[in-house]
Design goal:
Blueprint lengths: L3 E2 L9 H12 L16 H18 L6 E6 L2 H13 L5 E6 L2 H10 L4 E7 L21 E4 L1 E2 L4 E2 L10 E4 L16 E5 L10 E6 L16 H6 L9 H16 L2 H22 L3 E3 L10 E6 L5 H10 L2 E2 L10 E4 L6 H19 L2
Parallel strand pairs: 1-13, 3-4, 3-5, 5-8, 8-9
Antiparallel strand pairs: 2-10, 6-7, 9-10, 11-12, 12-14
Length: 359
């Protein structure tokens, strides 16, 4: 039976990425060696790193605009630390928007370095919406936001216009929609949702914002050191970077971000239309802030959970139970999830409605 993978991360990737990466594990570039055993300094892997970094900038429309793409380790969680280390001045301050668990974790790390202003938060409402109408201090060293919130199913639709650097954690919606990425001075994203296998983190940074803090930064945490070493300061996550290359090649071949955005909108519209139409379900996020990547919803009657769970499992659906802090269900519709998988879930929801109506 075909599986329909709604896992929030690590998550579904294109089938061709699985096939090509599997082959590379056995025999990379017809070298007779596995991708897992070659030197990261070898000509073959250096070419992988260079192409992947270049393809990131190409797809984001940032070529020739003073940006560098890096593949680092430690997940987005390490970036919570590296951002203030590299951008907050010793006597400075930073501004943060609190829209979910990961945004809150980023705030906690920044507080270790200096004054951290939370410009707005939806925490008291269980992060069910994106705050709006907030003001960002013009004397802050940078503003940090999280574009998509996997746990609570919300997504920022409009970003502020600022005269200070804007930093964005795009871990769960990078490469999923068209944006003016030049509005952001630093973007970071864990690879395991829309880019590739777990183990590497993409950082896209405008070089001119660096070296202004007055801090002494440990080498491994210094973006400048990683840029100078061309993302090879330490041994990179070879397999994870290679799967990123394959995924980005797939994305480019289907038409890039503009093409996948249309597909993602179709998937989200299909599922949310059923959530709103079907009386057995209700969404948890404010409608205007609903995420196209992570749809969160509840059963209106918890007594239907046992039968619904049985039905979606029998349909080959995997990974839709909601996060423990929200409950209910979460359908993660990342780039590689086909529209047909969303249709399968919608059909199960309709079947549940029909079954209940006969009782």
């Amino acid at each position: 039976m075909k599986k329909h993978n709604y896992s929030a991360g690590p998550c579904i990737l294109p089938q061709e990425v699985f096939e090509k990466s599997a082959q590379a594990v056995l025999n990379f570039n017809n070298s007779g060696l596995s991708l897992l055993e070659i030197s990261h300094r070898s000509k073959d892997f250096v070419a992988v790193m260079e192409e992947t970094r270049a393809l990131v900038l190409e797809l984001l429309g940032l070529e020739g605009k003073g940006y560098q793409a890096l593949f680092l380790q430690g997940g987005a969680s390490l970036e919570f630390l590296m951002v203030p280390y590299n951008l907050m001045k010793t006597d400075g301050k930073a501004a943060y928007l609190d829209t979910g668990t990961w945004a809150n974790n980023a705030i906690k790390e920044a507080q270790l370095f200096g004054e951290t202003i939370v410009v707005a938060s939806s925490k008291e409402d269980n992060y069910s919406f994106i705050p709006k109408g907030y003001k960002v201090p013009t004397d802050a060293n940078y503003f940090h936001c999280t574009s998509n919130n996997t746990i609570f199913g919300t997504q920022i639709k409009s970003f502020p216009e600022l005269d200070i650097p804007m930093v964005c954690d795009m871990s769960s919606d990078i490469f999923s929609r068209s944006l003016d990425f030049s509005k952001f001075d630093l973007i970071y994203a864990g690879a395991q949702k829309n880019m590739g296998a777990a183990g590497t983190t993409l950082v896209v940074i405008k070089e001119e914002i660096l070296n202004k803090t007055g801090r002494t930064i440990p080498s491994i945490l210094d973006y400048g050191k990683h840029i100078k070493a061309e993302s090879m300061y330490n041994t990179p996550a070879v397999f994870a970077v290679y799967t990123c290359l394959l995924t980005l090649q797939w994305l480019k071949n289907i038409g890039g971000i503009a093409a996948i955005e249309k597909i993602n909108e179709a998937k989200a519209n299909l599922l949310y239309s059923e959530v709103d139409r079907n009386p057995l379900f209700t969404g948890t996020a404010v409608v205007e802030d609903r995420s196209n990547m992570n749809a969160t919803f509840l059963l209106t009657n918890p007594e239907h959970q046992e039968i619904f769970d049985k039905m979606w499992k029998e349909a080959g659906i995997s990974g839709i139970p909601g996060h423990r802090s929200v409950g209910g269900y979460r359908a993660s519709m990342y780039n590689a999830l086909p529209l047909e998988s969303v249709q399968v879930l919608v059909d199960v929801m309709k079947e549940l409605e029909e079954l209940v109506s006969k009782q």
